[in-house]
């Protein structure tokens, strides 16, 4: 079992504190969902875990199996088994999906143990068929000209091919129609198991209708203020966030980060 431990994490953007002491422990074989109003720091948390330079960790720690993640460069975090599916995936002209995926897979393997071309093609074809993706997407430039749904499906293709230890999925359901949502959810559910843990950031219960989380956390004002099981997300869908604010005595504040 692997464990990702976030302890008293404080993160600032341009000198303004966004995360104000986040504590979270994620094990493999677990799917965690983070929900919360806009401006609570959910996407900041995802970016801080992966080491985006815009986000300054002012105190606290992130450890992966006891190793200090904050001391790692971004590529080292990816090689260590962390993966981020971004809310708005970047377009990269001149690099095909297939070339990107093979390079990413080999970057996590020892020199001399690179995946063979034939094995890679077999796995790629199988995974694209599972995700109901057109074969020609393998030779298209990474996300260039892709629709929103194609980009999100492509993120799940990367997830299933690279096979990280922990995935952070930042609003992977954003902008998806119901058919695309079902396919994306199918891919994430396929990854569930002893060697995989996941942190999903979402605004909506509808994603959790297809991916049942083991743990649900609510973020407000830069902290995790409440945790529970899947039933917590269901109540949020019905009653919103006001009952949590009343229960914990949380006052509204100006939104800081979407």
UniProtKB/TrEMBL annotation:
Keywords: ATP-binding, Nucleotide-binding
Domain ABC transporter, chain residue ranges per copy: 4-246
Pfam families listed in its UniProt record: ABC_tran
InterPro entries for the chain: AAA+_ATPase, ABC_transporter-like_ATP-bd, ABC_transporter-like_CS, FeS-cluster_ATPase_SufC, P-loop_NTPase
CDD domains the UniProt entry points to: ABC_FeS_Assembly
Gene Ontology molecular function: ATP binding; ATP hydrolysis activity
Annotated NCBIfam families: sufC
Family statement drawn from the similarity comment of this UniProt entry: Belongs to the ABC transporter superfamily. Ycf16 family.
Name the UniProt record assigns to this protein: ABC transporter ATP-binding protein
């Amino acid at each position: 079992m692997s464990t990702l431990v976030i302890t008293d994490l404080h993160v600032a953007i341009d000198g303004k504190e966004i995360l104000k002491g986040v504590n979270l422990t994620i094990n493999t074989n677990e799917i965690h969902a983070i929900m919360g109003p806009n401006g609570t720091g959910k996407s900041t948390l995802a970016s801080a875990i992966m080491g985006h330079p815009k986000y300054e960790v002012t105190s606290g720690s992130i450890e992966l199996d006891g190793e200090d993640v904050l001391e790692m460069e971004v590529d080292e975090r990816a090689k260590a088994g962390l993966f981020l599916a971004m809310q708005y995936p970047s377009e990269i002209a001149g690099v095909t999906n297939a070339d990107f995926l093979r390079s990413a897979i080999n970057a996590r393997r020892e020199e001399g143990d690179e995946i063979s071309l034939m094995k890679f093609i077999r796995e790629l074809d199988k995974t694209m068929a599972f995700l109901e993706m057109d074969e020609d997407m393998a030779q298209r430039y990474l996300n260039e000209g892709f629709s929103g749904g194609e980009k999100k499906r492509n993120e799940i293709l990367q997830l299933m091919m690279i096979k990280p230890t922990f995935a952070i999925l930042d609003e992977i359901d954003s902008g998806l129609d119901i058919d695309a949502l079902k396919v994306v959810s199918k891919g994430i559910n396929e990854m569930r198991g002893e060697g995989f843990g996941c942190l999903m950031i979402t605004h909506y219960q509808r994603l959790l209708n297809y991916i049942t989380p083991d743990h649900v956390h609510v973020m407000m004002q830069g902290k995790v203020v409440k945790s529970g099981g899947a039933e917590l997300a269901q109540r949020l869908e019905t009653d919103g966030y006001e009952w949590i604010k009343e229960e914990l005595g949380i006052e509204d504040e100006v939104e800081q980060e979407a």
